[in-house]
Amino acid sequence: MRPHFKHGYNVTCDNFFTSLDLAVRLTKEKCSLVGTIRQNRRELFQAAKAKQQLHETTLFKTTTSSTSFTLTCYQCQKAKPVIIPSTLHPDLEVSSENNTKKKPETVLFYNKTKAGVNVVDQIARKYSVKAASRRWPVHVFCNVIDLAIINSWVLYEKTCRSRISRREYMQRADEELCGTSPNNQSDELAEREQEPPTKKRRTCSTSKCRNRTTLICCTCKKAICGKCSTKVCLKCVK
């Protein structure tokens, strides 16, 4: 986003990225920030975490020489409060279109501009490199990789002017980064399947596979069924 500094742009982000430090840094670059923030953030004071009645709004505001920061706490559901910090709205108004919900201006603005954020989250959840881990640096690193793949996929479609599914793009990127290609894999599999089948049926040597087959691997001479023939034999890898 560095090329867009000093031009008065607004950044709308979800609760994974929103923080007070980010808002201050963007304000110094003449940009504003609107986004949701999690209740378990340490930088939130206790009054902002207090329970409210349904559709009730509490506003906190602080003004310094360089930053005007507002914090909106809106109870949209009984067990789902929404906390939205904003440097774009110095003064707030409550919507009069729907008197039952009484949504504040920051909530309406976030709902209008959150489409890109939610779409990216949905795409990242569909195909992700994340693995189960209790260490937060691992999740941050995996999230950076997911976002980098999505950004490169969008740029690839625009620059090459071709439509390609994200799954296929990820496979191609993985093959190029690992130095492998589908042709080399297919040639290797073809060589493995050149071994003539035996008459005796044996259990497939692939882990968690109990199929009976007469095919054998030409390298390690282990039984391998037709379903697992597209996979590299674990014995050969070792």
Could you explain how this protein is built, in words?
With 238 residues, this protein is of the alpha+beta class. It folds into 2 domains: 2-113, no CATH class; 119-177, no CATH class. Helices cover 35% and strands 15% of the residues. It has helices at residues 20-28, 105-113, 115-126, 136-160, 166-178, 182-192, 234-237, and strands at 10-13, 32-35, 57-63, 68-77, 80-86, 202-203, 212-213. The strands form 3 sheets. A 3-stranded antiparallel β-sheet has the order 3-4-5, with helices on one face. It has a two-stranded parallel ribbon with strand order 1-2. Strand 3 (57-63) and strand 4 (68-77) form a beta hairpin. The chain is elongated, with a radius of gyration of 27 Å. The two termini are 45 Å apart.
Order of helices and strands: EHEEEEHHHHHEEH
Q: What would the principal axes of the Cα set say about the shape?
A: elongated
Fraction of residues in helix: 25-40%
The total count of helices amounts to 7
Main sheet characteristics: 3 strands, antiparallel
Strand order of the largest sheet: 3-4-5
> Could you tell me the mean pLDDT?
80
Structural domains: how many: 2
> Could you say which structural class the secondary elements and strand pairing correspond to?
alpha+beta
Total number of beta strands: 7
